[in-house]
Amino acid sequence: MIYRNLGNTGLKVSEIALGCEGFAELSAKESRKRMEQAMSYGVNFFDMYASSPKLRDNMGYAIKGHRDDLIIQGHLCSTWKNEQYLRTRNIEEVRESFEDLMKRLDTDYIDIGMIHYIDAEEDFHQVFDGPVMEYALELKKQGRIKHIGMSSHNPAVAKMAVETGLIEVLMFSINPSYDMQPPTEDVEQLWADEVYMESYHNQDASRTELYELCEKMGVGIDVMKAFGGGDLLDEELSPFGKTFTVNQCIHYALTRPAVGAIMGGFRSEENLKEMVAYEMATEEEKDYANVLSGLERHSFEGHCMYCGHCAPCPKGIDVASVTKYLNLAVAQGEVPETVREHYKLLNHHADECIACGSCEKNCPFGVKIIDNMKRAAKLFG
Ligand code: SF4
Ligand code: SF4
Q1: Which among 288, 290, 301, 323 is the best mutation to test ligand 1's pocket, defined by most ligand atoms within 8 Å of the CB?
Q2: How confident is the model over 61-65, as a mean pLDDT?
Q3: How far is the C-alpha of 262 from the C-alpha of 171, rounded, in Å?
């Protein structure tokens, strides 16, 4: 298992992490078995958005004795009413539900207090300028949550949240199809058929900007919906008319800037095995470029997807990484120190490029790599 820094939190999370949906139908004993199985593969990070008391109790049992080995992302604003999950901004309900979560998990701290699901601008202001954020800050001051996070599907709102400097972690939906959708306050739009009937020609700029902003601000992203709710794996449901594999979806999400981990639903033991098998997958198995470059209604032309298809370079330049650092620096209008440091650590640098063109022949997205190497050489020196 590879462990990644989750932004600037200091947390080292397993890149394959555990969502809680897969535990919904399990008994306490089965939940513990599933958790221990995940941990035996090296998973150390799990998300707990669910508010069901039974599920919370079961998860408490599942992590008993393992608390210090796990990084828990627990949600604020997810509550239980009339026997069902409900998102709330009512501060009394928020407090009550968070206390309940800590009690049922039998823990005195939550690593990431994740403010649950903000997609609308109005909602964002209500939360960030109101008692919910005050409560999150109070919990952080008390050490009961170590870091504040927020979950969202809307890049415009997520960007506003990151810009406040108040959140350290963003839980965001990332996959190749959502990355082509413009910002919306209505999450259903991400699934709507008519959206995919239109012709989108490239990645949506607001999403790329969001990932780059997170990288700049040291905000770690953990990913939800990496498989588009399973649609991308299904020939009939995939909006592209082509399927991706589990490895390709994971690799796509993990190669976006700032991403620390992918949350998997793990509805079965098989799911779990399939996801952690990513760690052993070959570069060919992870390669999503062939699917993306062969799409009919969509094009990623000219946009670096960080797929690594351009390798090998005779001078040993890691083109994908150089391009990623170049894009980060360009997006920020300066070269941030962290990006400069990362660039320095590369074994070979852009100024070694001999313009042989071999990478451009291999790039399925028509990226002007030689120009990029020249720009990077100039920018980074
Ligand atoms: S330059 Fe092309 S081949 Fe290389 S990482 Fe970017 S998109 Fe992939
Ligand atoms: S053009 Fe430059 S970056 Fe591309 S393969 Fe040749 S030397 Fe490497």
Answers
A1: 323
A2: 96
A3: 10
Least distant ligand from the CA of 368: 1
**CATH 3.20.20.100 in the chain, residue ranges:** 3-293
Check whether the bond before 312 is cis (ω within 30° of 0). yes
- Residue 317 in contact with ligand 2 by CB distance below 6 A: yes
Cβ distance 62 to 27 under 8 Å? no
Ligand 2 pocket, residue 362 CB under 6 Å:
no
Q: What is the CATH number of domain 3-293?
A: 3.20.20.100
Q: pLDDT (tens digit, 9 = 90+) per residue, 88-140?
A: 999 999 999 999 999 999 999 999 999 998 988 999 999 999 999 999 999 99
Q: Note the pLDDT tens digit of each residue in 135-164.
A: 999 999 999 999 999 999 889 999 999 999
Q: Give alpha helix (H) positions in 218-282.
A: 246-254, 269-276
End-to-end CA distance of the chain: 35
Burial class, 271, CB count within 10 angstroms (exposed 0-12 / middle 13-18 / buried 19+)? middle
| b/e map 345-365, b = 16+ CB within 10 Å | eeeebbeebeeeebbbebbbb
Residue for token pair 């990496």: 226
Q: What is the pTM of this model?
A: 0.77
Could you give the CA distance from residue 245 to residue 353 in angstroms, rounded to a whole number?
34
pLDDT in tens, 319-357: 989 998 888 787 777 788 888 888 999 999 999 999 999
Q: Which helix (H) or strand (E) holds 330?
A: helix 319-332
CA-nearest residue, atom 2 of ligand 2:
353
Lookup result for tokens 């094009």: 299
Greatest alpha-carbon span in the chain? 67
- CA distances for 336 relative to 158, 163, 327, 375, angstroms: 21, 16, 12, 16
| Residue 195 clears pLDDT 60, i.e. is over it | no
Strand, coil or helix: 243: coil
The bound ligand whose nearest atom lies closest to the alpha carbon of 355 is 2
Distance CA 196, CA 153 (A): 17
Q: What is the C-alpha to C-alpha distance for residues 127 and 133, in angstroms, rounded to an integer?
A: 6
Rounded to 10 degrees, what is the CA torsion of 19, 233, 203, 316? 90
**How far, in Å, from the CA of 216 to the mean position of ligand 1?**
22
